[in-house]
Predict the structure of Peptide methionine sulfoxide reductase MsrA.
Amino acid sequence: MGCAQSSSDAQTVVRSTAGGAPTNLQGLAVATFAGGCFWSCEETFEELRGVRAAVSGYSGGTVAKPSYEQVGSENTGHAESVQVYYDPKQVSYQTLLDVFFLGAHNPTELNRQGPDVGPQYRSVAFYRTPKEKQEIEATIKRVNASGHYPDPIVTQVVAFRQFWPAEDYHQGFYRLHPDQGYIQHVSEPKVAKFQKAFKDKLKNPL
């Protein structure tokens, strides 16, 4: 199951092409993270000033062009992920890391996020360069030392290989379906936590 509901339930929702990579990538950088259900993770990064777009999808596995059902079967190696397209002149990679580790999810939960259980919900920070790897590892060390969480961070630090966008109905799901039960009870509290912690970083300050 993805985001704590069956695939059949998810696909009865009206499909939308909301979300998607920018058509013009000039001047943009790209970062990829896995932090549990991608609905709230996508929304978190979408609200961050300097982010052009966040796309829900799958990364970290070996199966090409996986489907939602395949990823949910736990046989692909993929995690539900979000690819972030951002303007480095407006928001730094370090800020993205701070949001990921302190606002977007709980990085101390192993192979789960709240009610979502399985390796497809694991926490992963994908790096594209040695510098990004160093920044990720330094951030993990700093957050662990701060005592922000009672348990140590279990986020995997993995070299980026490939990102496969999820099906259309997953893109922009948080905004399109505010009355959906999972959004109200699981996703909204996560996004609210992020908004409170990073209120000075939002596109639209509360």
Q: What stands out?
A: Residues 6-18 have pLDDT under 50 and may be disordered. The first strand starts at residue 29 and ends at 35. The chain is about 35% helix and 20% strand.
